[in-house]
Amino acid sequence: MNKKKLSHTGMRSSLTSVLAALLCILIGLVCGYLVLLAINPAHAWSDGFVRILKGGFYDAPYGIGKMLANGAPLVMTGLSVAFAFKTGLFNIGAAGQYTLGAFGALYCAIVLHLPWYVGLLAATIMGGLWGAIPGIFKAYLNINEVITSIMFNWIGLYLVNEIIYGNGMGVMYDSRNTRTWNLRRLEGAEGTMIPDFGLNKVFQTNSTTIAIFLAVIVAVLIWVILEKTTFGYELKAVGLNKNAARYAGINEKKNIILSMMIAGALAGFGAGLFYLSGVSEWNPLNSTSLPAMGFNGISVALLASSNPIATIFSAIFISHITVGGSFLSTKYYPTEVADLISGIIIYLCAFSMLFRGKIHGLLFGGKRADKTNVNAEPAPAAQKKEGK
């Protein structure tokens, strides 16, 4: 009976979480449509809202390929934030870890001409090392990881800029004129790029690779680690209560550092998937802002309620909306409307607990009350018998 009750409780919790996320999405889309109406009501539906709703399917198969290519790094940055959330930490430094991962991947590919899998490994290591630093500060000095990870975002960005374009190492000797790192401008770059296995031909793109499948595999692996292993249990235990975990014999300092290191490695891996697929070029010198992909991971994690499997669908949805926004007619609307919709959804995710409580009350409130009353009846009866 207890197992059945637990399974029913878990199913109800999952259902309410999904419905709460859908409610956030619905409200965000309605708000986006109202904004389109305010800007240009004559074209709000056909040239605006429909294109955003269709997303990558508006210009299939090219748009679908673009959606998958952009979705792969989003899955990873979402996992980075979600993994830290699950272990009681807030990794807001995914953007910096993503930056270091991009540098590691592209340096191995363009300068060292190493295979793509080596570039992915380098990206993962670089992101992991950068993520471990806030973890060390948290574990040994009890400095809030939010503060240190934000600071290390900017340190990472300008450190990479200095290494690439500074007068010191001069790593960018072969691209000083273009000021960018782009695998497609490199002769013989085939071995350094993630293979597509015919996906580019199917989607009529030049950047749709197996990256999305690699991201899905990692997401499943993270779920298994968190839910099915002793290591995952220890990480979550430290996140719930450090003192109780220490009393149970768990090394909380080690687990805090490992949690932030794994979160950073996931973000770095995402950068490797993005740039080694040739989706975009890296141009840090002309950019004074951090990669948006790192911060978008926060929205993905929030929308997925930090569930690694749900992160896959959440990332694909955010990518779907973003690609749809790129198909907006710039004659009538700015493409940033899609970012506005995503931002509203993120904001509403902060109220997901409230939504879940209301939805649970509407769906299961009556049944739960009945069961509580039934279970409560024997106690007074037993007390009366004992009194007699």
Automatic annotation (TrEMBL):
InterPro entries: ABC_transp_permease. Keywords: Cell membrane, Membrane, Transmembrane, Transmembrane helix. The keyword Transmembrane helix applies. The keyword Cell membrane applies. Its main location: membrane. The chain crosses the membrane at residues 68-85, 97-114, 120-140, 152-173, 207-226, 256-276, 340-359. It comes from the Bacteria. PANTHER family: ABC TRANSPORTER, PERMEASE PROTEIN (PTHR47089), GUANOSINE ABC TRANSPORTER PERMEASE PROTEIN NUPP (PTHR47089:SF1). This is ABC transporter permease. It comes from Faecalibacterium gallinarum.
